[in-house]
Amino acid sequence: MTADLARPALPLRPELAGLEPYGAPQLDVPVLLNVNENPYAPSDAVVEDVARAVADATRTLNRYPDRDFAALRQDLADYLAVESGVRVAPEQVWAANGSNEIMLHVLQAFGGPGRTALSFSPTYSMYPEYARDTSTAWIEGRREEDFSLDPDAARAAIAQHAPSVVLLASPNNPTGTALPTDTVLAVLDAAARVPGGCVVVVDEAYGEFRRRGTPSALELLDGHPHLAVSRTMSKAFGLAGARVGYLTASTAFVDALRVVRLPYHLSAVTQAVARAALRHAPELMAQVGSLRDERDALVGWLRERGLRVADSDANFVLFGTFDDRRAVWQGLLDRGVLIREVGPQGWLRVSVGTPQETAAFKDALTQVVGLAATGNEEDR
Ligand SMILES: *Cc1c(COP(=O)(O)O)cnc(C)c1O
Fold first, then answer.
1. C-alpha 104, offset from chain centre
2. What are the beta bridge partners of residue 118?
3. Which residue has the higher pLDDT, 379 or 119?
4. 123 alpha carbon to ligand 1 midpoint, in Å?
5. Distance of CA 31 to the CA centre of its chain
C-alpha cells in the first residue's frame, strides 16, 4: 500500500479504533442527580477564602509550582487524621487532578504491557479505561447477587490471574456497597501471595458517606505496604470542579507514583484552592450528615414502594429493577430530573440531592412508574 501524502494516516493504537470518549451525558435540566455531586455549592465564606488564595497564587504564576506540594500533603494528612482517626505522614500522601489521575498514576507505575489489573463488577466503569490507556490487561471478576464480594471468590480470582493491581471501590459505584474489613484483608493476603507482587487500591471516593460502624481501609495501612486508599475532594467535599483527588499508602508506594507523574502536574492554582478548601473542611462537610439521612430515607421510600434497592454507604442509591430502564430514565428526564442509567440490566442510579431535588425525583418517579406505597418494606 502506498502512502497518500496529501492525507497521511493517523497511527491510532488499534485498541482505540472507533471508540468514543466516555462520560455521563451533561444535559441542562433543573434537577441533576446523575454524577453523585454534592448538591450544596460552597458558602460565601469558602468562596472568599478560595478567591483570596487564588489571587495570592496568581502573583507567582510566572514560576512553576511546588512539584511535590509538601504543604498540601501535610494538610491532607491532617484532614484524614480528623476524618478517620488514622494519622499518616505527609510522605504517605499523594495528590493529583482528581482521583482518576491518581488511578492512572497507579497503573502507570504498577500496571503496563504484560501486566493485569483486576476488579469485580459491577463496579466503576472508568477502571477498564484506565487499564486500556496504560496498556494493562483488564480482568473483571464478579460480585455476588447482592453486590457483596465473596472473600473466597476474590482470593481464587487473584490466585488465578496473578494481577499486579487490584482495584476495589468501597463504597462501590454504582451499587453503594461497602466492603467489610475481613474481605479487604482476604484480598490483601491473596495479593501478597502473587509472585512478583500485587498492589491493592481501595477507592474510597465516597468514604465520608459510610454508615456508622462501616470501617475505612485507612485503618489497614499499617503493616500492608501494598495497600493504597484513594479519596477525592469531588464528592463529600463538594469540590468536583476543582479536580483534586488523593491517595494514602506506604512511602515506597507513593515514591513509585512520584516517578510517573508529569512534572508540575498539580498547578499552583489547584494547590491553593485545595488548601483553602481544607481550611473549611468542617463547614464544607456540614451537609454530609444530612445527605446520609436523606439517603437512608430515600432507600426506605423506594423499598416501601416495592422496589429493589441496594444497601448504600454512598451519596447515591441503586434501585430497580425495570424491564425497560431506558424508558424510566427518559420519563424522569422529560420531567426535568436527570439520573444515571448504569449498572446491571434493569437498575438505575440516583444521587442524593437537596430535599427539594429528592422530592422532585420522587414525584417524577411516581408519575413515570405509577408507584404506590405497599406498606410492607421488601427486605433487600
Ligand atoms: C466519582 C468517583 C471518583 C472521583 O473521581 P474524581 O476524579 O476524583 O472526581 C473516583 N472513584 C469512584 C468510584 C467514583 O465514583
1. 13
2. 139, 166
3. 119
4. 12
5. 21
Nearest to 32 by CA among 338, 356, 373, 361: 338
| Cell 455476588 belongs to residue | 144
- 245 ligand 1 Cβ < 6 A: yes
pLDDT digits (tens, 9 = 90+) for 109-146: 999 999 999 999 999 999 999 999 999 999 999 999 99
Residue nearest to atom 5 of ligand 1 (CA): 99
pLDDT, tens digit (0-9, with 9 covering 90-100), for 72-111: 999 999 999 999 999 999 999 999 999 999 999 999 999 9
Q: What is the spatial distance between Cα 142 and Cα 119, in angstroms, rounded to a whole number?
A: 8
Q: How far is the CA of 99 from the centre of ligand 1 (A)?
A: 6
* Domain limit, last residue, from 251, 279, 307: 279
Say what the alpha-carbon torsion angle 37, 38, 41, 45 is, to the nearest 10 degrees: -130
How far apart (Å, rounded) are the C-alpha atoms in residues 282 and 31?
26
Atom from ligand 1 closest to the CA of residue 124 = 13
Of residues 135, 67, 130, 132, the one with CA closest to residue 104: 130
Q: Is the CB of 205 under 6 A from ligand 1?
A: yes
Q: Are residues 173 and 189 in the same domain?
A: yes
Q: How far apart are CA 236 and CA 170, in angstroms?
A: 14
8 Å CB contact between 298 and 318: no
Q: What percent of the chain has pLDDT over 90?
A: 90
Where is the domain boundary, 225, 248, 279? 279
Domain of 342, in residue numbers: 24-42+282-369
Concatenating the DSSP letter of every residue in 179-243 gives: PPHHHHHHHHHHHHTSTT--EEEEE-TTGGGPPTT---GGGG-TT-TTEEEEEESSSTTS-GGG-
Nearest alpha-carbon partner for 141 in 116, 158, 119: 119
CA of 206 to the centre of ligand 1 (A): 8
C-alpha cell at position 165: 493491581
- Ligand 1 centre to CA of 236 (Å) is 11
**Do 150 and 273 fall into the same domain?**
yes
Does residue 380 lie within any of the structural domains? no
Average predicted confidence (pLDDT) for the chain:
95
What residue type is 319 in one-letter code?
F
Quote the number of domains for the chain. 2
